[in-house]
User: Which sequence fits this backbone?
């Protein structure tokens, strides 16, 4: 068994105690990718490999996705049986065709990897209209590891019976999971309506009373931060005295982090499924636990 990867992958290799093989992260001047696995020897056909990379701060989602595909295809063509650890399942948010002519992107990306890997491991996939990522794959076995425990490990110990808040209806799953794992009784979510043409977001609070409460906002991803910013404002209006923001996938596009900081929140925590200034919650122990579970060790 060997593990091909970057610094994120090396953490997993070290925790598993397997051989680590780096790769040269090459890019041509026209932007084309040419990652090269730095093999020291030729492995016999049928050897087992793990490929594990996260999204780097200096690369696009497209580069992250295509790099993973090229590396996985190279391992497949070299006759490895490959487990892919793809912590941020790119394009998963487009798990439905909302307007005629749009791509069903989540399916397309899954089908890129399906024929060339034996197992597909991701973290808190953004699939709100499907109950299981396995429905996207025909052959590869799938494993959707939760990133919520890693976020909880980074929350301050001084929280006293906080209210766990999802910024929209879809995030009630994450709020419920975080509350259950923390042993907290109160959780809920705002409701959100997004205009499919303009992207404009409306958030509704219902009858939520957060007077003098510590609040932990949790979502699977923060992209532009629009939903979270509205949630912070509404939580304060509902009486919250202290707000912590957590997210598994800190995309943080368009100055989202500065906008959230400007709201005076008590803390902002993201995981290391992708690199960012807030990627302090380490999901690699949770991934390793899952790998050991299905690898038999």
Assistant:
């Amino acid at each position: 068994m060997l593990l091909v990867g970057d610094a994120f992958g090396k953490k997993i290799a070290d925790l598993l105690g397997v051989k680590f093989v780096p790769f040269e992260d090459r890019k041509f001047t026209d932007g084309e990718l040419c990652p090269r696995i730095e093999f020291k020897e030729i492995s016999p056909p049928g050897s087992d490999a793990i490929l594990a990379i996260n999204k780097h701060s200096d690369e696009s989602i497209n580069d992250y996705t295509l790099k993973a595909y090229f590396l996985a295809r190279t391992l497949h063509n070299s006759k490895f049986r490959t487990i892919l650890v793809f912590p941020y399942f790119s394009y998963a948010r487009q798990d439905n065709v909302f307007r005629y002519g749009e791509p069903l992107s989540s399916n397309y990306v899954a089908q890129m990897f399906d024929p060339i890997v034996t197992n597909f491991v991701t973290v808190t996939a953004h699939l709100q209209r499907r109950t299981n990522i396995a429905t996207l794959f025909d052959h590869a076995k799938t494993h959707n590891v939760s990133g919520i425990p890693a976020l909880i490990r980074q929350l301050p110990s001084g929280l006293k019976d906080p209210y766990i808040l999802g910024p929209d209806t879809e995030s009630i799953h994450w709020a419920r999971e975080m509350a259950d794992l923390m042993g907290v009784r109160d959780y809920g979510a705002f409701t959100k309506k997004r205009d499919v043409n303009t992207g404009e977001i409306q958030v509704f609070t219902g009858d939520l009373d957060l007077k003098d409460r510590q609040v932990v906002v949790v979502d699977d991803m923060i992209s532009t931060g629009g939903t979270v910013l509205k949630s912070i404002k509404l939580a304060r209006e509902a009486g919250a005295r202290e707000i912590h923001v957590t997210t598994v996938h800190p995309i943080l596009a368009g100055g989202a982090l500065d906008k959230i900081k400007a709201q005076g929140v008590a803390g902002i925590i993201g995981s290391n499924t992708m690199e960012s200034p807030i990627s302090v919650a380490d999901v690699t122990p949770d991934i390793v636990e899952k790998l050991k579970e299905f690898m038999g060790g």
User: Anything to note?
Assistant: Helices lie at 7-16, 61-77, 105-113, 148-154, 172-182, 226-237, 256-261, 284-295.
